[in-house]
Amino acid sequence: MIRREKRLVAAVMAILAACTVLFFFPVDSVVENPGDLNDTYGLPPVSIYLVVLIILTVTSMVLTGLGSIARKVLKHGSFRLHVGLYVFFNAPLVLTSLLGMLVSVAYMYDSISGILAALLFLCSFVGGLLAVPHKAN
Questions:
Q1: Is the CB of residue 47 less than 8 Å from the CB of residue 135?
Q2: What is the spatial distance between Cα 40 and Cα 21, in angstroms, rounded to a whole number?
Q3: What is the pLDDT averaged over residues 90-100?
Q4: CA proximity to 15, closest of 111, 70, 92, 108
Q5: pTM score > 0.90 for this model?
């Protein structure tokens, strides 16, 4: 049980690190309109996606924390209840990781920090999947 919780914490830390890397490094070099470099009106799409990712990350972290508390309170419940709680509370984390990978690969594939962010989002996705409760034999 403790090992799975550590994997979930690692997944949350990876998604936070990925958002941080994506925020501080490659976003500042993206132009507003790649078709016309003189057009500086508006925001680049990657900046908008980054704001959405930050909001989704905070939401998924809160839900993951609530899910961990709910699973500890209901620790004597059935196995199906534990899996259902895990899926309900951690689906946003996994889906946010997938969206982060998509944004990183689509917009930041030409920079090392963009690739690093994509790998961190991948680690978060894998950590979320590895932390799924299993039946003890």
A1: no
A2: 24
A3: 90
A4: 92
A5: no
Whose CA is closest to 104, among 93, 118, 119, 125? 118
**Token digits for 81?**
């209840």
User: Distances in Å between the alpha carbon of 119 and those of 15, 51, 93, 123?
Assistant: 10, 19, 15, 6
Count CB neighbours of 38 within 10 A.
6
What is the pLDDT, as a whole number, of residue 31? 64
What is the tens place of the pLDDT at every residue in 15-68? 777 777 766 666 666 666 667 767 667 777 777 888 888 899 889 889 988 988
Contacts of 24 (CB under 8 A, 6+ apart): none
Distance CA 16, CA 22 (A): 10
Q: CB neighbours (10 Å) of residue 11?
A: 25
Look at residue 24 in the predicted model and tell me its pLDDT.
67
Residues 87, 79: Cα–Cα separation, whole Å: 12
**Hey, which of 6-10, 96-100, 113-117 has the most confident mean pLDDT?**
96-100
Q: Distance of CA 5 to CAs 35, 81, 90, 107, Å?
A: 47, 17, 12, 32
